[in-house]
Design a protein that fits this description.
Layout: H1 2-52, E1 59-65, H2 72-80, E2 89-96, H3 102-110, E3 116-121, H4 130-140, E4 145-148, E5 154-155, H5 159-169, E6 175-182, H6 189-213, E7 223-226, H7 227-233, H8 243-253, E8 258-268, H9 274-295, H10 306-336, H11 348-367, H12 376-385, H13 393-406
Parallel strand pairs: 1-2, 1-4, 2-3, 6-8
Antiparallel strand pairs: 4-7, 5-8, 6-7
Helix pairs in contact: 1-6, 1-10, 1-11, 6-11, 6-12, 8-9, 9-10, 9-13
Length: 422
């Protein structure tokens, strides 16, 4: 009787994991189709904006910078070279107690252009994270629109203009975010995987959710939010490790729209080694744990009811879906070694192959939306991702869970390593 009950339990767990995984795959398929349709909407919208050239409001761009000597000069030059009225653009670079040459580089650049303002945060007040310096910059900003770029970014000339135009095009709008691309995508296998991951995430999740639900979540860079909305929600949360996602949910909770604008593009560096990648993704996972704890109890009171679905999606992704993947993989290994028997009839090998093919087809479809990204080599990388890169993510989440809930390590914002630019 005990053996029978144990076998029944294993069978139920196995069937539950299959059902959960496929429910998420179906949802992702729906988002993929919606994202593809939105790509066409966005292309038409871009043509209209290019033809009409709407009036642009003033914008203050904030750039947090801590020990960014390798990248900050090019970032400043790219932002100041934006196709934007010079009298309506203010760039505030927040030197967060840098100990390298960042401060001297910024001081030299400030002498060339009056639009550039440098804020040197003293060592005694610095090192508190990105959210803290953004709140400091917000107090100094002169304009009603607040833009944010990371210190390693190279926005295309039209990126800022396309974002600012949304506030005339899509009123009322709380925030607008653009697309990020991987500038060092050809460096090695890891950056190629990250490039594919970033593009597919943006076209599937960001574009798909905007098309279906009129919601999106802010990335860490290449976005504009209104000062009025920031004042309403209280600025950035300085306890959050993923301050962008946390701010997104408060904006949505307050009933404001966040729009994804895929034709506003910036180029950024991504980790070139596994150690840097692992630290970055662990910070993201811990940040999302904090996010879930903070918002889950209040989601029912949100003005934007789509937020409830958004929070459920995060919960399913980080807790349920990843657990289902780990359990199903464990059962597969135990079954293959003969330690566990799962006598549930069904074409499970065919089901797994169908899931894998769907995964690859969705990503290849999204890559086709970017010039030259659906190359034969990228298709091969895409097919290999599931067995390699994707399998690292449960390890990251497990490590974040250990640090957050078992070790209870203090959360600290640590910036991602930068690399010398060619």
């Amino acid at each position: 009787m005990i053996a029978y009950d144990a076998g029944l339990f294993v069978e139920l767990v196995f069937l539950s994991t299959v059902a959960l995984i496929w429910s998420m795959l179906v949802y992702q398929f729906v988002l993929t189709m919606a994202g593809y349709l939105y790509s066409r909407d966005a292309a038409r919208e871009k043509r209209r904006l290019d033809a009409s050239r709407p009036r642009l409001p003033g914008v203050s761009v904030l750039v947090p910078a801590h020990n960014e000597e390798l990248v900050i000069e090019r970032t400043v030059e790219k932002i100041l070279a934006s196709d934007y009225p010079k009298d309506k653009l203010e760039l505030i670079v927040l030197d967060d107690a840098s100990t390298d040459a960042t401060a001297s580089i910024l001081d030299r650049l400030a002498k060339r252009d009056a639009r550039l303002r440098i804020v040197h945060v003293p060592a005694a007040e610095g090192g508190k994270g990105k959210a803290a310096v953004l709140n400091r910059g917000l107090k100094l900003a002169r304009h009603a629109l607040i833009g944010v770029y990371d210190a390693d970014n190279q926005p295309e000339p039209e990126a800022l203009r396309y974002l600012a135009a949304q506030f005339e095009l899509e009123a009322p709008l709380g925030a607008a975010l653009g697309k990020f691309r991987t500038v060092n995508r050809n460096k090695n296998l890891l950056t190629r995987f990250i490039n594919i991951e970033g593009l597919s995430f943006q076209w599937i999740v960001q574009a798909g959710r905007w098309k279906l639900l009129k919601i999106a979540t802010l990335p860490g860079t290449n976005f504009i939010v209104t000062r009025a909305v920031l004042d309403e929600v209280g600025g950035w949360d300085e306890e959050a490790l993923t301050e962008d996602a946390e701010l997104s949910l408060r904006i949505l909770e307050a009933g404001h729209l966040i729009k994804f604008v895929p034709y506003s593009t910036t180029w950024e560096q991504e980790p070139e080694d596994l150690s840097t990648w692992f630290k970055q993704r662990t910070r993201w996972a811990r940040g999302n744990f904090y996010l879930m704890r903070k918002f889950f109890s209040s989601v029912g009171k949100a003005k934007n009811k789509a937020l409830a679905f958004e929070v459920f999606y995060f919960l399913a992704l980080y807790y349920v879906f990843l657990a289902a993947i780990v359990v199903s993989a464990l059962l597969f290994v135990l079954s293959a070694t003969g330690l566990v028997s799962i006598p549930v009839p069904g074409p499970y090998l065919e089901v797994w192959l169908a899931a894998y093919c769907l995964f690859a087809a969705e990503i290849v479809l999204m890559l086709s939306l970017e010039p030259h990204e659906d190359s034969p080599s990228n298709i091969i990388y895409c097919m290999a991702m599931y067995f390699t890169y994707c399998q690292l993510w449960p390890v990251v989440v497990a490590n974040a869970f250990y640090l957050e809930y078992l070790k209870k390590e203090r959360r600290a914002w640590v910036k991602t390593r930068r690399y010398a630019q060619p």
